[in-house]
Amino acid sequence: MNRQPNAPKRDWVRVKPGERTAAVPEKPDYDDQKLLTLLQSAKREVQGLRLIHLHMSLLKDKSHLDIMSIKRAMQETADQSAYLQVFNLSNDDAIVLYKGIKFSLISDVCSKIEKLLLSRTMMVKRNPYGEDSLYSIMELSLNFVNVIRFIEGLTKDGGADGAKQETKPPITLEELGKIERAVQMFDLSPFMLNQPVVNIRATENEFEYFELYIAVKALEERLSPQYDITANKWLFSYFTANLDNSVLKALNYGVDFLRGRRLGLNLNLSTILSAAFVKFDERLTTDLRGNVVLEINKADLVENIGMYKEVVDFAAAKGYKICIDGLNDFWVTHMDLEYMACDYAKIFWTDEMDMMSEGEYEAFCDKIRAQSNCRFVLARCGTVSGLMFAEKAGINLVQGRIVDNILRKGVAIRDAIKTAKVMSDD
Question: Per its UniProt entry, which superkingdom is the organism in (predicted)?
Answer without folding.
Answer: Bacteria
